[in-house]
Amino acid sequence: MSKKKYYGVRSENITGVFETWEECKSSIEGVKSVKYKAFPTFEEADAFAKGIDISNIHIQTAAESNSVIAYVDGSYDGSQKRYSFGCVIITPQGKIICEKGSNEDPEALTSRNVAGELMGTMFAVRWAYSNGYYSILIRHDYEGIAKWFTGQWKANSYCAKKYIEYMGKYRNAMNISFQKVTAHSGDKYNEMADELAKKALMESKI
């Protein structure tokens, strides 16, 4: 079952949020210079429709929920036989923390960039717990991050098994939730995490 989406629409004559693609499509037909985009939450779609910087919504959400929000992404370089992660952490106090890293575990290389995605998620959870935050929302673009954790996908690969084993240490110690975002859709922090992952690989060449 596909997850619910909210469609933000912005133009000179039309501004609003629609809950189905059919409603959105009907509203924009024949309208010139209209901008529209799908979001996982009403708040983000509403901010887009009103021309508000969506990044401010994430900071507000972190503050209101007293929860860390972490964007994670991964990358892979076959020539180096190395994978990496990028992580953007938003604290309830509104602080933005950017982290990155890479590794070359031979058994993980077959998972390519997914190995980096999982490494980034584990880093984010460890960082939150170590800094006294016991609630975290992981925003990710690879669905396995959530589905392996929840058991919707069976962990068959080396990386997935290591991920489940590691995350099990925190499962009952903190609240861990997930939200999928669309890759390369213009989400500021998702793009930052992607760039950090790539930068980690570039730095490992030096």
List the helices and strands and how they pair.
Elements lengths: L5 E5 L4 E4 L2 H8 L6 E5 L2 H9 L3 H12 L2 E10 L4 E9 L5 E8 L9 H18 L4 E6 L3 H7 L7 H10 L7 E6 L7 H18 L1
Parallel strand pairs: 4-7, 7-8
Antiparallel strand pairs: 1-2, 1-3, 4-5, 5-6
Query: What is the string of SSEs from the N terminus onward?
Result: EEHEHHEEEHEHHEH
Main pleated sheet: 5 strands, mixed
Mean pLDDT: 89
Helix content: 25-40%
Terminal-residue CA separation: 45 Å
Highest CATH level, the class of the largest domain: Alpha Beta
Question: Would you count the extended β strands for me?
Answer: 8
Low-pLDDT segments, ≥5 res: none
Q: Largest sheet, order of strands side by side?
A: 6-5-4-7-8
Query: Shape from CA axes?
Result: globular
Name its key features:
206 residues; alpha/beta; Ribonuclease HI, Chain A; five-stranded mixed β-sheet; three-stranded antiparallel β-sheet; 26% strand; globular
